[in-house]
Specification:
The chain folds into 3 domains: about 80 residues; about 70 residues, Arc Repressor Mutant, subunit A, CATH 1.10.10; about 90 residues. It is built from 12 helices and 6 strands. Helix 1 packs across helix 7. The protein is flat, with a radius of gyration of 23 Å. The two termini are about 40 Å apart. The mean pLDDT is about 85.
Length: about 280
Amino acid sequence: MDVLELKFLLELLGEADYRAPASKIKPNPQSKASERDNICRRLSERDLVGYSVEVTRLAIAPPGKSLLKLEMAGLPVTAEELLVLQACANEEISPTQTGIVAELQQPVIQGLAQRGLIRAVKTQINEIWLTERGQEFLLNECNPTGTSPVISLNGLANYLRFFRKALRDVGVVEKAVSKLSQGKTAAELILNDDDILQIIQDLDRQLGTDNYLPIFQLRSKLQPPLTRDELDRALYRLQRNDKIELSSLQEAIAYSQEQIEAGIAQDVGGPLFFIIVI
């Protein structure tokens, strides 16, 4: 890992939930956006950071042109999607030229791009976060060498806070494991419902699931120490207390059978699959 990559990670450690707008992350005061984005992509390829992008220039793709030639009544697109396709039918445009409200521009544009109806001509990194793999790397594997004074005291302070928090977390788990040997359940000793709610919110931010966290993601985090039944009961309690909603899965194509089965089965209909914090 080179110095700028390390400084990049240390900058993220200073942000809430290790997540920040891309514009806030500057390995050096004079760092250009293109240099920052290149570092971000290199780190993402090693699964040390994640990032979201926004489309800044777009153009229609051949399937989009073909779709516009169909009868309007039968087009498989929403009104907003149609506006975007018509706006870029003859030229490359920016999102503000699509004719739809600002808050819908990126979701609609990126949805059309995923379906191959438009091309994202130019994108920019919007938000960056440290992944669980990145946290593990900094705790257990990062071993920089050299004598040049290249890391700022702010970066060092960020790392020390991160490391101390990890030590505290380990201490809590060790105490709980010790008590487990006395015959009490993990749910009684380690996690109460407020803890689980916080973990749901943290995972949602880390994974970028936009308040639709799949239950299989929470199971992979909490089972063990919790059993499947303990976690299901905790989710039902949170739902009864109006802390969360549990939603069923409508489109299963994006998930594996194992992930779907990690939901909560119902007597009627598909399993409960998403967790939505109220």
